[in-house]
Design goal:
This protein has about 450 residues and is of the alpha+beta class. The chain has four helices and 26 strands. It is flat. About 20% of the residues are buried.
Amino acid sequence: MSLTASLDESSVTAEPGEETALALRVLNSGRTVEEYRFEVVGACAAWSAVEPSVLSLYPGDSGTVSLMLRPPRDSTVPAGGTPFGIRVVPTSEESGTVVPEGRVTVLPFTETTAELVPRSSHGSRSGQHRLAVDNRGNTPVSVRLGAQPGTELARVVFAASELRIEPGRAEFGKLRVRPAKRMWRGTPVTHPFQVFATPRVAEDQEPLEPVLLDGSYQQEPILPRWLPRALVVAAVVLIALVGLWYALLRPAVKSAAREAVTPDAVRSAVEADKSASPDAEDPDGGGGPAGAGSAGGDSAGSGDGAPGPSASPSPGSSADAAATAPTSAQVRVSDAVGGGANTGTALRVPAGQTFELTDIVVQNPQGDAGTVVVSAGRETRVLSLGLENFRDSDYHFVTPILVPGGSTVTMTIDCRRVGRPVGAPAPSRCSESLFLGGNMRPE
């Protein structure tokens, strides 16, 4: 081999946001002038480069290039060790490529920001806020949450006192501001407060400054300010209505009642009472309409006790009810994608009987895509549905569908895409179920 390449150090430490150089020595042990190209391989290739990128050497000469490591100071590059390699490619003989390897350790750093949403709240009993904390560092961080009310008239309570946040993620801490005393009425009172988010660090590291945020909660009275005015207005309106009744409507009603009591009205009432009194004093009730009705009742009830026409049962009704039998059936049909339609028979009607189809339930538990056709008999297509439009679908017919003897009720599946149930392995075929119900009766 006419090429020798080696790193000065097999491992190096890089600070995020800073530049670190690592020397690479190249020796041309061949007999001709050679030009070499350099490529960084590994996870650090996105933020690394070899300078210069091309090196020319005479036979027996050696040269040095620098691997420049520039990890960004953000959460995209996690802290920890990362292996890498530098591919040294001779231009004239690429088969003689060598790849010296090393390891770079990216140091951790912590950077957090926070935002109070919303900054101001209002309400009669409490105010609700959320503290959004972003971890912009390259290592997981635990953040302690706390608050300090501006006065003793309110207190701030967090739902959780600590958050653990992964790099590049944000977590929310819920907090509630409660007033010390309820305020039934009066002017709204503003309660200022301050919240802080403090990142936790190792004991051998310097403590980080907490992120401080100011907020406020406006305590409103439980009884709205417009309520006393509304009560006064309602009382005035009620008094006005009562006065209007006594002043105008009540005298008009009394006057109409007096005008209605006239001598003619009294005379008509007396005559009506006299005409009704003889019927009331008749002891045996003969000759009146009631007597006629009673006689009619006796004639209807007389005889040998045979029932009247209204009580006669329809011919054959009990026999039909005894011969009709509730019937149900079901079938499950599977079909593969691209293999053509597949048909399954749910019910075969015996000869000499008729099936009255009243209920159909079609189930698509996997969420497959395709078509399903339910047929009754040779020519009757009852349903034609798209599988992607439902998971469970049921149909009930007031007028039953008649399936003659010797015919069948079938379900045909044409699968276009196999669904995937939630929390279960992916199936290989479409699978649907048909349940039907009705009555079987003689023809």
